[in-house]
Amino acid sequence: MPSAMENGPKTRTIVFCHIDSLCCLPALNAVFAELGDHIGLVLSSRRFGSSHGTFWEQTTSGFRRFGIPLNLWLGFDLISVPVVAFFARWLSRLTGRPPSLATLPELARRHGARFVETSDVNSAEALAEVQACAPDFIVVMNFDQILQPPLIGLPKVAAVNVHPSLLPRLRGPCPVLWARARQEHISGATVHAIEDGTIDAGRIIAQVEVPIDGATSVGELTTQLFSAGARALPTALARLAADRTTGQAQRLSDGQYLGYPSALQMKDFRRAGLRLCRLRHATHLLLAALGVTRWKL
């Protein structure tokens, strides 16, 4: 049992909500390395064929709204993971060595957690799954659905989110992109309580600053920030387990909620030097997920 959790949950008391993405794989594996034996239920977001639309509907809409480069990057970040996982299973059988970066279904299997895909985390079916788990915590990290009060109220201690920015600054779905577009020099990760349906607005339980190298791509910084948040998570849960009221309330007026940039904004950002990804970083992640190379958590 991790030392940071000595005063925290003792059994399978965590419901974990996540959507697999390539850049978030190191953070995902870090969470399970520390807390995997406490996770009883994994809720994975079913992105395609849900209320978001089919793959082709989302692709067409994305090209119109965000432009080609951002839409291709977002699609690659999501779709590459199940593709790589398929080939990783075969390579693992040949080599007898599991990949150092496992995907969400594989991590759930390794730790004996129930794995459920859902297109609506607030549905009666999802609520029943969480109730059956009787968790102390719901942990959300890199998840594209908003928890509503019936679900938020189910854990005995708290629902928390790992967000890749220094809240209340840069609330919303893509804070890493905005941090790079604005050429900020410092960002970080925040573990905050989810107290209602307001996005990224609950009490701050833990924060860690991460300096930004001016040459860092959005993909590289995404990996860095979520990994920092994953490392801060066990201590944050232990603090909440000891005192459910712990944390600092946010003053939302000190920050800003930003959605996805438009295609025109993306053109301007790219002209100013914004890089969405680097081939070297993506290749390193892919090879680690295939089990060809090792990734140090």
Mean residue pLDDT: 92
Largest sheet: 7 strands, mixed
Q: What is the alpha-carbon Rg in Å?
A: 18 Å
Beta-strand residue percentage: 5-15%
**How large is the count of helical segments?**
10
The CA-CA distance between the termini, in Å, is: 17 Å
Helix/strand order: EHEHHHEHEHEHEEHHH
Helical coverage, percent range:
40-55%
Number of strands: 7
Q: What's the arrangement of strands in the largest beta sheet?
A: 3-2-1-4-5-6-7
Q: Could you state the oligomeric state of the chains shown?
A: single chain
Low-confidence stretches: none
Structural class by SSE content: alpha/beta
What characteristic shape results from the CA principal axes?
A: globular
Write up this protein:
- Helices cover 42% and strands 15% of the residues.
- It contains 10 helices and 7 strands.
- It has helices at 25-35, 55-66, 68-95, 104-110, 124-133, 149-152, 175-181, 218-242, 263-271, 279-290, and strands at 14-18, 39-45, 114-118, 137-141, 158-163, 186-193, 204-211.
- The protein has a 7-stranded mixed sheet, sandwiched between helices.
- Helix 1 links the parallel strand 1 and strand 2.
- The longest helix has 28 residues, at 68-95.
Topology, element by element:
Elements: E1 14-18, H1 25-35, E2 39-45, H2 55-66, H3 68-95, H4 104-110, E3 114-118, H5 124-133, E4 137-141, H6 149-152, E5 158-163, H7 175-181, E6 186-193, E7 204-211, H8 218-242, H9 263-271, H10 279-290
Parallel strand pairs: 1-2, 1-4, 2-3, 4-5
Antiparallel strand pairs: 5-6, 6-7
